[in-house]
Amino acid sequence: MIGMKLLLLNLFNRKRLKIGNRVKLWGGYSTSPEWLSGKNAYYGEVVDFIPGYYKNEDAVVRLDEEISFSGIKGKILILTLRYKNAIWSKAEIVHLHLFDSIPQGDKWRLNKDGWDKSHIESHASYRIV
Known about the structure:
Layout: H1 2-12, E1 22-26, E2 42-50, E3 58-69, E4 72-81, E5 91-99, E6 110-111, E7 114-115, E8 119-128
Antiparallel strand pairs: 1-2, 1-8, 2-3, 3-4, 4-5, 5-8, 6-7
């Protein structure tokens, strides 16, 4: 249901995500995602785009407050589009990767078991606010 709402929002509002946008980040695969630590959402600013996993670039978001999750602490989230044909728009479903600083290169993304330990959520949502 959330995916359909985001699709409709994107169809009717073609605003593209860009550097300087403020974003709200929430949700996940479960009804109470652990990465939120009991909060409704986190907020931050898009500060950069880096080479992405698919054809799109990944968005770099500097959070207003630090997240501490699974032994990782940081205020930097890398947002990777969840679906191959997705585009950076007003709202979308994304993977989240948590860091204490912006990672360099693309070695952080994958290891032999799949996503790197920085991967904290596979079905988060963002919306430009």
